[in-house]
């Protein structure tokens, strides 16, 4: 085993590396926020086109579809993440694991699996609504406007996924840094 000063030095080097990673993640978050703003601006332009050309009930359908897009995708991503964490915990279960903890994990897995399946159903319904919305828009918008609308929807989905992934990486990296700093201070 290394001398305490060697271990402390290695921990400081690791802290520096994690700080560097954290800085890069924060820079990516700033860039992602700019991408989201640019996509939101495109979305506002599309909404103005829709309001300027479609019937009021079609405008409302479009706006509701866009609002629900975020909700359904965020729900699905959240449940997927929670389900993955429970599955990871279940994979670590062994003979030494408390039976109540095992039972709790299995119940949470069952509940989350059902909720995840329901959310997938919502996503399928949302995909159907997307097709119906574009059928309506194709009657009013130019080919370029329709392509911009499709690009907006696809980019929105991609950015939501990327934002969720980045937030999870940031949280994990911040937790690692805090844990390492606490272990260095306790020496």
TrEMBL record:
The keyword Electron transport does not apply. Residues 95-127 are annotated as: Disordered. Its main location: cytoplasm. One of its GO terms (molecular function) is actin filament binding. Residues 8-35 form a coiled coil. It comes from the Eukaryota. Signal peptide: none annotated. GO terms for biological process: actin filament organization. InterPro entries: ASD2_dom (IPR014799), Shroom_fam (IPR027685). Gene3D superfamilies: 6.10.250.3120. Residues 99-127 have a biased composition (Basic and acidic residues). It is found in: Cytoplasm, Cytoskeleton. Keywords: Coiled coil, Cytoplasm, Cytoskeleton. It holds the Pfam family ASD2. One of its GO terms (cellular component) is apical plasma membrane. Residues 1-185 form the ASD2 domain. Belongs to the shroom family. This is ASD2 domain-containing protein. The lineage of its organism: Eukaryota, Metazoa, Chordata, Craniata, Vertebrata.
